[in-house]
Sequence to fold (411 residues):
Amino acid sequence: MTVYGRTGSAQCYAVRDFLYRNDVPFKWVEVVNDESARAIGVDDSVAEERLPICVFSDGTRLERPTIRQISEKLGWFGDPSLTEYDLAIYGAGPAGLSAAVYGASEGLKTVVIERWSVGGQASSSPKIENYLGFPQGISGAELAERAREQACRFGAEILIAREGIRGDFSARKRVGYLSDGTKVVARSAICATGIEYRRLAVPNEERFRGAGVYYGAGASEAQLCVGHHVVVVGGGNSGAQAALHFSKYAPRVTLAVRGDSLKSTVSAYLIDRIYSTKTIEVLTRTEVAALEGDKTLEAVVLVDNQTGEQRRIHTRWLFACIGGSPRTEWANEAGLIRDEAGYLVTGPDLLQAGRAPERWPLDRLPYYLETNVPGLFAAGDVRHDSVKRCASAVGEGAMAVMFVHLYLATG
Ligand SMILES: Cc1cc2nc3c(=O)[nH]c(=O)nc-3n(C[C@H](O)[C@H](O)[C@H](O)COP(=O)(O)OP(=O)(O)OC[C@H]3O[C@@H](n4cnc5c(N)ncnc54)[C@H](O)[C@@H]3O)c2cc1C
Fold:
């Protein structure tokens, strides 16, 4: 498929990001001038409103399509096929996909509901190098696509581009309501909704979102950064990974880190590579003070958080890899216990002086990954005190399914 559009357009970025994360091969064609706009049948004066244009291999042309329209065209959009499932999983990141593989392969009628695309945070990672079994590393998008295929092969249903927004957990049914009005009924559920990238909290950020300011490692964008100065913000492994990846394309990468050094926050193997890559400069004690530009980002102002000294970098590319927080407002409304930051509390962490919380209705204590609603489990980054790693998310997804079996068998 071919996508015609402009870099710096948030709509075009959303489509590129979606296709990249889902491992859909596509050719990106930049619409640079009137002539190239006319060549695809668009008058340049209205190009902005009509781009991106997606042309599929069968010749179908969609102008400024929604993610749902693209999913439908790719044959990925369907309604739930069953009126009731054994297991509903919310989130198709590593934890949700792992739960889907184990649930479906162990005979549970399993459905996965995913707001955006499969793979979660991992699918934005250009290369995951510490995941067991891949000594040369594997791109997050490929890992996600393999997991999706595996889950589907075992019979899991995956509904993408749909968000769970509300839950009703009465009468031993786990009923999820999706943003498009669809209702998913299941006997048990796993919440694997991970975390959402944290914002930089500087003026103009929303205006430049997808138009110069991106969240995560921006793997879909790297090849477009040839010849440009790239700024990466964040002193964790994901920021370091992103800087290294961009350095393969961009002539200069600035890694802005709030702390004094990378040592306590970045794995040693990445630190060595960062400092031996001449085109990467690391600025410690540095934060973003301002974002400048008209319609798209044109410059980033960085500030030394100790001296107050400022520096302006002219760039069209800023990638923020500064962690995230869970979006679990729905859980609050549904009576789930969360910690102060919004992570879901499960198992032993729910106990007070060894006893189940007040609202717990059963004689037994909650299982290890079970929330304070029986039969509703949490796995991966969304869980209080979880280890924020791919392998641990995958492990928790698999483990949660074991507790689902116990719950379905004994209550
Ligand atoms: C750039 C980057 C690089 C990384 N590199 C590594 C690495 O090299 N090694 C490593 O071990 N870890 C790495 N990590 C961390 C790792 O990716 C995460 O720990 C892991 O993805 C967590 O998995 P998860 O399934 O719990 O959550 P997520 O990956 O966050 O997935 C959650 C999914 O739930 C979906 N969702 C959210 N809300 C809803 C809703 N209401 N309804 C439906 N769906 C919803 C989201 O769209 C998302 O797809 C990296 C992270 C980033 C950002």
Observations:
- Residues 90-96, 113-116, 120-122, 124-125, 128-130, 163-164, 192-195, 216-217, 237-238, 241, 321, 327, 380-381, 388-391, 393 surround flavin-adenine dinucleotide (CB under 6 Å).
- Residues 260 and 284 are 5 Å apart (CA to CA).
- The radius of gyration is 22 Å.
- The longest strand covers residues 183-191.
